[in-house]
């Protein structure tokens, strides 16, 4: 063959492939042009082993990014509540930043991201001594993290996933001993105060960078020395249920120190690995909330010092100094050297900061805490700190103790952090709906039929199903013809049975020239088990639904989310499925179930994930003219490539005609290893993505 003929033939083939990628108005045009493609078979292409169509893929690989995990929890404690997370303790985007600490010194701090507590999989309470769920987790997770709540006390465990199984049996003797010790101490304290006719129920605990721990009576300013700290600190926070005060050391490796308020003694829990000025304990989840001199909030497990999650803070004018404090109603406040802010978590899981105080305060707040009267106390920076009360609505303030007050009380020392211990009576928490789950543990406290939730992929995360829509012809593998982000929330009753399924979804890509629909088949659910389906977006008159909202003429329950993806791109939607009788999570099956694309308004033309079955209305037409790449109808080419892929992550699809293995640098290694290598290839880790190749 002449060189000129070879070049001409190659250019013709490239033109045809580009024309048939994702811009056809009908599949008839595709069939005609793939016939032309067959006529080019004698063209001698240069072999490129990195091209996606030339990858050697293991025969049994289905391009799955998740694994099935069954977790069994054995616990006979009435009312114990569990929250379970996917866990791998990975920190990323580690950066060292220059800061000014509470002593006014130049310093450096580590800043990083972690998202473990964003990976909530489910909540529940053992019924008849056992709680069992089968869940989906990303394959790169090898552990689960369990948070157990019993009354106002929290414990946690990190458990290995062993061949898709996790079993946990609760046994706790130390917790019972501590509870008895705390109860006795509180009783003695209450007796002393009653006999002295002392109305004071609050104690202000203070720490500083010199390693001093002391308390202050908020009524008269009297100061009492307590056990010296193992290391100076800018932080303090109190777990009221267990009477522990926590503090993070100011020097590397920044140990998490725990003060036993009953026995006036210190111990080291572990190393946090980062320092900073802001810390508080959240009684609602048993976690420490921490912030360095930066615009981030971290959660820390007080039992092991592990950093669990990260939130970004927007609109924080000054990032240095200050403190965190939870108000009695759960609102989170932050002070910095710039003043007082209220933090509100938005729909994107980001804290939006609203300044409350003026920006011209005559003092630099280093710490703050709420007392039992919901008054906010702050301490100022300096060799002899002031104690100040500030109004959280108006930002108004008043000096109470210290050199700038009129009280005559001068501490003569720095208060780098401040926290409050309040003696409180045990209050019976109501169970408004009478389902046996108290309101604070019930996701639906006023609905007796609902109590808990199970999430796929997680409470705050998104998964993505992405398709090539030219099946059975080979596409360009940019997987952007139709991409759908999803989050499934199974609503459970007090017995952990499913009563409702909420499907939150959004079409994130419309790279096709075809009008496509999208549905889900619940393979273990008969249509009669569904009471109603609401929220489906069906406008094109080729989908027929029964009175309960499921698709007609299906042997198993099929829910059509939409029939024209072009009309709803980037629009958030929710479809709710109510069951006629509660079912087990095992019968419900694993989301996203059996998802499929309906191509070009042709109801019979379904595209499924590899080796998944068509619905009753799907048609396998193996007689299509042209270069049919799926004669056996398993939705994989002979080389193993799929037309659809499910990714348990918010997947950023490639740009038009950019194959996925060019946009993602480790896709090839993942695919050719059968999913063993680079199991998190789709994440935004350094070096993983070519951002210019993503939409």
TrEMBL record:
<feature type="domain" description="DUF4842">
    <location>
        <begin position="496"/>
        <end position="682"/>
    </location>
</feature>
<dbReference type="InterPro" id="IPR015943">
    <property type="entry name" value="WD40/YVTN_repeat-like_dom_sf"/>
</dbReference>
<dbReference type="InterPro" id="IPR031025">
    <property type="entry name" value="LruC_dom"/>
</dbReference>
<dbReference type="Pfam" id="PF16130">
    <property type="entry name" value="DUF4842"/>
</dbReference>
<protein>
    <submittedName>
        <fullName>LruC domain-containing protein</fullName>
    </submittedName>
</protein>
<dbReference type="InterPro" id="IPR032295">
    <property type="entry name" value="DUF4842"/>
</dbReference>
<dbReference type="InterPro" id="IPR011044">
    <property type="entry name" value="Quino_amine_DH_bsu"/>
</dbReference>
